[in-house]
Amino acid sequence: MGLFDRFRKADSAGKAASKTEKELARLSRIVADKYSQNYDRQEAISELARIGGAGAARHLLRRFNFSMEPSTTDQEEKESAAVGVVSVGEEALGPLREYCVKAESLRWPLEILREIVAEHLIAEEMLSLLDQFDTEYTRNSEPKVQLLNALENYPGTEVREAIEPFLLDVNESVRFHAVGAIFSMASPESMESLVEAMEEEESLRVRNRVASALVEQEWELSEELGARLSPTLPPKFALSDSRRVVSTS
To answer: What is the pLDDT of residue 20?
Structure first.
């Protein structure tokens, strides 16, 4: 092949890549437009799934940025987009992680994650996502709540230790769901963190959830933790002589 032949081949490849990028951008605009025609959006989703690759996955994820009526159409389009991302395989993980950082909701991304990632690595991926959050105020706490709920299915020391700080989150809903996630771990080693949380907790709903779960678990507290927990228990709960939380109703 001569020098000019190589230049022509490189130029041709560059034009093809440019054309693909333009097509991806066009399809992405349709997918992300709540007011585009339903048929056009579905066609764009199908075409992106056909093209495949990380770029297509990144554009398909934009469909999860909005909801619309009718809800059946919204569900169908999101299912199609999810299938498209999953079909890309592990190559979609980069775009998926990037999307999760800014997502208003993690419902669909977490479902996709479970389909792409090996079962024994799912908890690790979710913990990486949880690590981007702290316990301070955030405008939208829904992603934190969704992650805490999802992690209930992956009990283990690392998961438990990652969840415990959220018992002191400034958002009451996050604290409530963190309690549920902690007790799903079924580990008495969380008792210190739970007592600390109860000492700070003002929400009766959260305190009741902790107390009710302690009744079910029948964990025996140390003398020191029992003395700290007892005055924090809500009405209709008490500490027994064996230092277990019991219901008095």
So the answer is: 80
